[in-house]
Amino acid sequence: MKILIIYRHYWPDTPPLGSMLRTIAEHLAARGHRVFVVTAQPSYQGRKSAALPKREFKGGVRIIRLPLPAETGGMFMRSVNALLFQVSAFSYAARHRFDLVWANTLPPVYSGFNAMVSARACGARLLYHMQDVYPEVWRHASPRPPGALKRALIGVLATIDSWTCRSASAVVVLSEDMMRTVADRGGNGAVAFHVINNFVQQELKSDTSPPKRLETSDFRLVFSGNIGRFQNLQLLVEAMALIDPAEGISLEFIGSGVMEETLRETVRQRGLKHVHFNERLPSNEAFQLTRTADLGVISLVPGMYRVSYPSKLMTYLAAGLPVLALIEAESDLAHYLRGNDAGIAVLGDASAVADVIRRARDTFSGEAGIKERMEALAARDFGREAIRERWVRLIDTFVAD
Question: Which residues form the Glycosyltransferase subfamily 4-like N-terminal domain (predicted)?
Fold first, then answer.
């Protein structure tokens, strides 16, 4: 089968999806499929690197890198790049014949719609890979409910995205929660949903021992990743303010984001000596530092579980950590933690979160072999081979049809 994957930041660009797509694409090529990737020069988060070939055959995959301006001009330039990339990807698809066009949800709504048109132009089926559910994500972008104009815009964009979903031969989401959100738009009952989560990135794994622990006997919580508006991290810091440092519990942030300075100011004002910040690190270094902690923290604003699934879960498990999730009890993530004794989910005020942190310390700090058990869960449920084979089985259904 001749497959076209459209993704702006394909490997060696740095987002996790770019690396994951490389793994799947090369595996499909090894199985005899003809795999093409339309991408651009690496530039994720404004990073600059030496230009790569415009055409390259690597790992059995034909890579076409479109010439785009450098993404250094803020939102305007990113929007221009998104438009140019999608138009160029459509042009490439329309000039060739493919059996399957594979697209994801960035840029939101537009990427999927463009891929749908591209698939029709080249006589292909569409595989729509939803890493998040847009435009519903924007309902949670602010602590206040959206106004009338924003609600109307979300409604229009949801209608367009539903059209894409109904046109697709397969819509892949990361959780049952995400699937229900799309299905509940109305008229999407016949969408061919498949729940396939992401997998642990192989480059994070290492045979070396984890770094030496900090000189502390504390039970250490770690939050690694984007310190953004969707993470509800002010609640976590407020909970830590209710925990006396003498209790032997500390929190460490690894990463950066728009809420970082606000959290740092809260920590300074409250004099929280048991809350620490690390700068953003390369993913493998962040992973190694994470391995030295005792509990990984996932935190999302209320309702976000319906439109997203945190990849931090698999990263923490692969690092050998049980998980504290500040998330609704009815979410897929909370069910997973309870069903596998892999952590604790809570959503409440700072006092409730502080109590759960203490309970997590008492529950997990004394369990022998906890790191090995968590790593085994990661391999079973989010291992590269297991998830890769689920993708192969899905692609094989298109061949059989």
Answer: 20-194
Work out the percent of the chain whose per-residue pLDDT is above 70: 92
Over residues 59-78, mean pLDDT: 79
Domains 2-199+383-400 and 203-381 share a fold: yes
Q: Report whether 115 contacts 101 (CB < 8 A).
A: yes
Predicted confidence (pLDDT) per residue in 141-180, tens digit? 676 777 888 889 989 999 999 999 999 999 999 999 999 9
Residue 355, judged by CB atoms within 10 A of its CB (0-12, 13-18, 19+), counts as: middle
Burial of 345 (0-12, 13-18, 19+ CB in 10 A): buried
Where are the chain's structural domains? 2-199+383-400, 203-381
203-381 placed in CATH 3.40.50.2000: yes
Report whether pLDDT(263) > 90.
yes
- Residue holding tokens 């060696």? 12
This prediction has a pTM of 0.88
DSSP H or E run through 391: helix 384-400
Q: Give the model's confidence band at 357: pLDDT under 50 very low, under 70 low, under 90 confident, else very high.
A: very high
* Confidence check: pLDDT of 181 > 70: yes
* Measured distance CA(246)–CA(219) in Å, rounded: 11
Q: Nearest 5 degrees, angle CA 154-CA 156-CA 157?
A: 65
The conformation of residue 145, written as its DSSP 8-state character, comes to P
**Which CATH topology does 2-199+383-400 take?**
Rossmann fold (3.40.50)
Q: Which residues make Cβ contacts (< 8 Å) with residue 109, sequence separation at least 6?
A: 134, 135, 157, 160, 161, 164
> Within 10 Å of residue 398's Cβ, how many Cβ atoms?
17
